[in-house]
User: Fold this.
Amino acid sequence: MIDAEARRALTELRRLDWAPTQEDVWTPLDIHLDALNGDAGAAVLRAFGEAAKSRGRSPLGLVVEGQQGAGKTHLLRWAREQVQLNRGYFFLLGISDGRMFWPNLVQTLLRGLRRSGSYRRSQLAVLLDRLCEHANVPTVLRQQVRGGQVLAREPLDAFVDAFRRAEPDVGRECRNALRALAMLGSADHATTDLAEAWLTGADEEDAADRVRWGLPADNESAESVAVQISRLLACTGPALLAVDQIDTIFAQARTSVIDDVSGQVSATIEPLALAENLGHGLMDLREKLLRTVTVVACLPTSWALIRDQTSAPVPQRFRQETRLSRLPSADVGAALVAARFGPFFEAAGFDPPYPTWPLLSEAFVAAPDFTPRSLLQRADEHVRVCLDRDEVIPLADLREPVPIGPETPPPSPEQATEFTSRFEQLRAEATIEQALSPATEDREMSRLLGAGLRALAIERGDPADRYRVLVGEGGNPSMHAWFSEILDDDTEDEAHWYFRAVSHTHARAVQARLERLRSLAQPTPGISKRRAILLRQPEWPNGPVSQRVKREFLNAGGVMTKVSADDLRTYAALDVLLREQDPALPGWLTTAHPAGRSSLFREVFGSAGTDQTPGSATGIGPKPMPAVGRAPVEVVASADHLVLGTVAENGRIVPLPLAALRKHTAIFAGSGSGKTVLIRRLIEQCALRGISTIVLDPNNDLARLGDSWPEPPASWLPGDAEDADRYLAGTDVVVWTPRRESGRPLSLQPLPDFGAVLSEPDEFALALDSSVAALAPRARMDAGTAKADRGRAVLRVALEHFARGGGQALPDFIDLLANLPDEAAALGRARDLAADMAETLRAAMINDPLFGGVGTPLDPGELLRPEPGRRARVSVISLIGLPNLEQRRSFVNQLQMALFAWIKRNPAGDRPLGGLFVMDEAQNFAPSGQATVCTESTLALASQARKYGLGLVFATQAPKGIHNRIVGNAATQFYGFLNSPTQIAAAKEVAQAKGSAVLEISRLKAGQFYAVSEGMSFRRLDTPMCLSHHPESALTEDEVLLRAKG
Assistant:
């Protein structure tokens, strides 16, 4: 058994980290062995020395090749320290595909200037101080300019003038960048945002402010800005520009090669195009930047692609003479482990018997077979084995197979209860306001998101060689948290999620922070392994530039969503628990999943899984999360849940609570998507649970809801055959045919049941609005003329008088119009207008038999009431007798008004759902940007029906063609196959309201849908075939009429 002191030391060693990231490059180097860098370190220093000696041109670039884990990022970290110790500037260019090379470079320079590294202040403050010194700027002025104080226009002008006197050519040609950089160092955020907007080429909506500060109203090209910054840097010192993460973008391109719109595969072209773009970009760096050495760190295969596939002479501008590889000797391996173990022993207060304990010195004979990273991984594996076996086992051979250890043990019931209680207490005590405040969000949001993501990594099994969590660098960072997953060590393929909250309200501040996030993450359509997630609580600014940058961000694959107060409290509680370092915490996290259950993480990781192409690694994706403190339970269909289908990735059944349909459903899908099958499935599932439905059938493909299948479909789920029998036996399917007397006609009275809403002023007013909207077109009073305005006013006053007098039928109202009483004739010439409208309405009744005509009077109670012995009724309203769109709209308006009045009198009460109303081709009845006769009644239902228990289903092929208030009221949404680029883009924009990025709509097959609902993260579903017969062809009119007759 391990004694307490040794256990404490081994537990500390489990915190060993062997995979430095780009963020680590800016942190102090904890340990360094010159032998690790080999010749590469000396080559980097020689190249930087050439840049330091130069007065202008840049030296040849340097390529440092190395396999994964060979120490490329460690080399860059060491190089950053050496550069800054020698009065140089260091910049780190991350992921970039070359297509936006210069804009990305500008953002890289600005990010680097904000960092300090080994300097006590930011590199921007150092640069401004050195520029002041170079121009002999007086001390008082220097203190105002060099950063950290609020800058005014007068000292800014004096600084620019002084520099132009010292450096006439550079000062003249770079005066705008010089002015903007000085403004960027101001302590006033508005000034820095204005400067950043000009430097990054944001739109010129702030032209007046720019001119007020002496900046040009127009933008300059990104290339011009980058070159100006480089020339100013060169006046005060050399620079090193490190290029990292090229391997990652090549790997992502290889597995993200299907165009989202066209669906065309381009696997043989994309990496070559990337190589060409990157090659030309690297050439430009060498040619156009001054006193700057470019160091490219990458895999040998990545450099070979750039070297061989670029038309530009890249090999002539870069030295390819250094390569990092395995450890050079046993002594270096032992020294590396001893150096990395030492701080952990010190933290544990442990004096080891030898520096590499528990790895014996003879174990390192095999060190030359390992890279630095793989050696540290092997050491960590052995420490885990010791802890798992509760025994210190000296390791004598690194090549000894690693035993498979047990999974993290779950906590005991007592521990689980204690953790759950502590967790809930911390959530209740958490203060989160500072995370939502612009002044403190950079610090607090980084802390909270970082804690949540670290907990998520542990919940996923915490393989430290797979998941990485970083937090923002502080002081207006490009991101607040960064979660990455290593998918393939050999190719350095990774998935990245970047989180950035923006609570600022000023448009310029919002735009600048969004641009920083986008520049860092580089979201790209078709590459699902890089996700930029913007967390935004306030409304987005309405200006044209703000709307444009938002649209560009979403179209590029960015995700915009909110983070709830509940989630932030969860992350705050996890932050405390993680800092307490209880050894049993990982066991509780892996069973309770508090981070993974948070709404934000379910949203993001459910919609941003990595590509699942053959041979690729599996992304983290969504996993079902049990409730905190409870054991996982199997979810099955019940009387209160519908079965939607199965999760595409794992085949799990996906239930939807009946009560969720109260908050309405929207289906966005095109022809051939399986939209009709999904609609029928929803109706059938409701009928099986005693819920009746009224469904509009504009295309003759729903009248078969009462037909049985000749043969069971292959895609049915287990139990569907029995459900089909129960559905057909227990459901009363009735087909109605308004205006077709040879079927089952309906007649509509255009006036609702006013008596049901007289006691509710708001709803009575809505009923009057809908009635006027229905009668005005029939009375020819729907124009924009003064006469029509007066006519509608007379209609409204007359309707109110009629309703309060207990009137109901249309002929009675027409008689009242013909003989308008004094109480309703306050307007001038009201009787003349009323008499004219009465005659016009009588003519409408003659011309349109549906308008107050023959047939079963429309009664929602009749449409929803099953005949004795049946569980539910499905009323299919065929529109074959209403060929004109205006006729259909008028009918739907009257139906909705009647339905609204009926559901008020017959609410669902304590039942989860009282009824369902389904509208296919919804864009025809409540379109966006156009008011129709049924718009008002549709919106009234969408906003009010839920409280009475009526669920609405809206289906459309045009995501932006339907009124936005309908979409906004739909808590459950489905996205199926679309092949129009316009509609795909519209669907993506609609999905963003749910914080989801629908990136593969054009690749969905029939029956596949992305779905999201309350309590269900955004995921892809496979939906089974409906229970009633649904062949490929729709019914003919005669077949519809035959079914209507019964």
